[in-house]
Structures are given as C-alpha cells and as structure tokens.
Structure prediction request, 258 residues.
Amino acid sequence: MILALILSLVFAQTPAPSPSIDEKSQQIINSAIEALGGQRYLNIQTELGKGYYTTYSDGISQIPSRFLDYIVYPDRERTEFTAHGIRSIQTNVGNTGWLFDGAVKKITDQSPAQVEDFKLAMRTRFENLLRGWWKNEGGKVTYVGRREAGLAKRNETVKLTYPNGFWIEFEFGARDFLPAKVIYKRSRKDPDTGDEVEVTEEDRIMRFVPNDGVNAQWIIDRYVNGKQSSRINYEGVQYNQVFADALFAKPHDVKSIK
Prediction:
C-alpha cells in the first residue's frame, strides 16, 4: 500500500513530455498548409465526403462500395457503406464506437481493437500533423530529408514520434508541398497463423482537386507491405456542414437508424 502511494506520487510529479518541432519541419508544415488553402483549410471543422471504396486482393480490385463519410474533427466519424443494396455503418466518437450490419440487421459495440484502429487512423492523417493535435500527446517532429518519388520528383519528409516510440513519416511534394504519402509500422495478427507480426502501412495520395478554396484529397491508395489493399476515390466533398449529434449516437434499435 505504501509502495503504491509512493509510486503514484512519483508519477504524479513526472511532467508530461513537451511537444517539439525543428525549424525545417515547421517550414514544410507551413508551406503545406498554404498549398492546401491556408486559413480556409485550417477553418474546416466538419467534412462530408462521398465516393467509392474499393478493396484489393492480390493486386486485383474487387467490387467497389459507395460510401458517405461524416467527420467532425478531431475525433468523430460516421462512415456509411452501400454494396449490393445493403448498407453498413461504422461510427466512432472518441473512445467509443458502434457498428450496424445491414446484412443481418444488427447493431453492435465496437471492440477495443476496432476503437484503437480508428484512433490510429486519426493519428496518421495529415490533419493530425498540420493542425497540431499531436502536441497534446507530447509528440516530436523532426526533419528526415528528401526522398525519390518518381521521375524527376522528390518528397520532403518529416517524422512524428510519440513518447511511446510510435512514429509516422509524412511526405510532401518538394515543389508543390502538397501531402503525398504517410508511412508507419504497426503490429497486426497474421490472418493465417494468428501470430503478431509487424507490417508497414502506407497511404499514397494520387490526386488533389480544388474544392471551395481548398485542395481536397481525391484518391487515396492504401498499401500494406508494398501491396495495395484499398482505394478511396472521392466524388465530392463539402466542408463545415452542421451535423446533428444524433447522427453519431448509437441507435436504440435497428428501426431508429436513419
């Protein structure tokens, strides 16, 4: 009991790590914000996107699903998928989440692992870096250097590292400073053996489209260990729409889903 009290006092007196960023990284971030729309980009609080989501198997694209995606930054998202006339919904609010499976007409809570996947996805978005949310967790941003990115093309790379050692590398076009790629490593269960294995995941942004004064990401390709696993292809994006809180709340029953 006494030992536990001493330890609690020690940890209570240990200050949280202070966020830091080097000068070169800050210059790149500032240039990226301007390339995306400057203050207009930073003023975005909500986002409503629609388009197609396609999974890949052994490099071959599967049948795409339509999606409708509601985001309230920094930690609320509801994504609706429709395929073969069946709708499914994935919704997250902070540390909670729920799912609706239209095939079996069932609502369930997300598992802790599914909630962590959502939090990881928000952590590894360019918005986290450019809007500075990483500072709340004591992250550190450092300049990595330039990388080859195709014929006569280079990317500027910065690295965001958290106190627990988890890191994310963000690449920006060296000429236009538009976001180009996100790279990070994580542990996942091997679907065949069930063992924990380390995988490298990448998001590659293939196209930007001017939209309401902002350069919007239009095509995002996901790669796992160098193999494409999915593509997000937007058809349209609207900013700063007002979403009712009920949109993110878990319905009482299937009939309550709108």
